[in-house]
């Protein structure tokens, strides 16, 4: 039996088996269709749409790849008022979103009470709330949970500690791992993920990322290609490869059949059909941006971000037609991962 067939059955691969599959493009189509089959069998045919509310691009961190890094003085910074946040959330809910993903750079410009009020107000509008706010204190995570937040996304970015240290000056890899453990302990539906194609990132290190996600039993994992940003120290790097990112995502699906996997915007930036292809090789979630006006362009992690001139209403319509053209229905549920539902029932 081929490695791919074996993984399709038992959801296990060793590090060297992963590296072997990543090293050759010979079996890519088999890998992509196996990932799609596993996704449909265990996580269903439905696609969850989640509205991404990029509510502030202020950031105190220094990540070498990211356009929001504190040192980037070229970027015009913004911070939405709580009223604007609730207004965008309300509109998104009226377009049919069941989850609002509140994402921002890492900053302390909102008071804890203010954040908690936004969380509980959005919850009261009937949507579930996912947060993506970076590394916080245990007590803050607890407060978000008490306010009604359901999920939290914190990518580890890379599990390779040497590589992490090079790309994240003044940050602590062990604290990031700690934050992920806290989030799980507090009971969030927890998501992580990594960047593919970082400078000096080896296939071994990518294999370790995948095994880390599996071992940690996350509920959601996002895989995105690294896209060099001219306003960062990695301006002249080569950047990630779409096919490699798609393969890593497909392998992730073989290893973790029940989790939610987004078809990332970064994939769409590298390939005009990026999200569509991702939805045909393991992904089951799409997160269109629901902020309006100039904010869409100002949340500039990397250049070439898609749909910056569109309205949220247009995006919702456009993505729905793309997904239904694939024969995949749009989910009308809360959008919890099957993994999380199973865990809750246990
Ligand atoms: N290319 C691709 N993804 C990026 N991110 C940040 N900068 C880049 C980039 N240049 C991703 C990080 C972060 C997420 C919000 O955006 O993985 O966790």
Features:
single chain, 346 residues, alpha/beta, TIM Barrel, 6-stranded parallel sheet, two-stranded parallel sheet, 15 helices, 8 strands, 11% strand, binds 5'-deoxyadenosine
Q: How are the SSEs placed, and which strands pair?
A:
Blueprint: H1 3-10, H2 15-23, H3 28-43, E1 48-49, E2 51-56, H4 82-94, E3 99-104, H5 112-124, E4 128-132, H6 138-147, E5 151-153, H7 161-167, H8 173-186, E6 189-196, H9 203-216, E7 220-225, H10 242-255, H11 265-270, H12 274-279, E8 285-286, H13 295-298, H14 312-325, H15 338-345
Helix pairs in contact: 2-9, 3-10, 4-5, 5-6, 6-8, 9-10
This protein binds 5'-deoxyadenosine.
The site of 5'-deoxyadenosine (5AD) has 12 residues, from loops.
Can you put this structure into words, describing what you see?
This protein has helices at residues 3-10, 15-23, 28-43, 82-94, 112-124, 138-147, 161-167, 173-186, 203-216, 242-255, 265-270, 274-279, 295-298, 312-325, 338-345, and strands at residues 48-49, 51-56, 99-104, 128-132, 151-153, 189-196, 220-225, 285-286. The chain is α/β, with parallel strands linked by helices. The strands form two sheets. A six-stranded parallel β-sheet has the order 2-3-4-5-6-7. α9 (203-216) packs parallel to α10. Bound molecules: 5'-deoxyadenosine. 5'-deoxyadenosine (5AD) binds at residues 65-66, 155, 157, 195, 224, 226-227, 229, 266, 301-302.
